[in-house]
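Troubleshooting entry. The earlier prediction with zinc ion gave an output that would not parse, so I re-checked the input for stray whitespace and re-submitted. Clean input:
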Amino acid sequence: MKTMTCQQLGGPCDLAHHGMTADEVIKAQDRHLKEMVAQGDTTHESALKEMKGRWKNPIKGMGWYRKTKRDFAAFPEG
Ligand SMILES: [Zn+2]
């Protein structure tokens, strides 16, 4: 199990996401951004927009995705 924060995933806060894979924490972050914005939080709006742009633009988003996977792999377990 590894931990990545909202901030490490391009967001504004330090909420920690836990997962076994980079995909898990990326999905958790996606969910978190949507929840925060749905609650009226404006600080997460730009991060959500960027995240949505990545899904729409898989080629452009791939660089971020690869970097996140690399970062995740570099983190110690626990
Ligand atoms: Zn956040």
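This one parsed fine. The chain has three helices and two strands.
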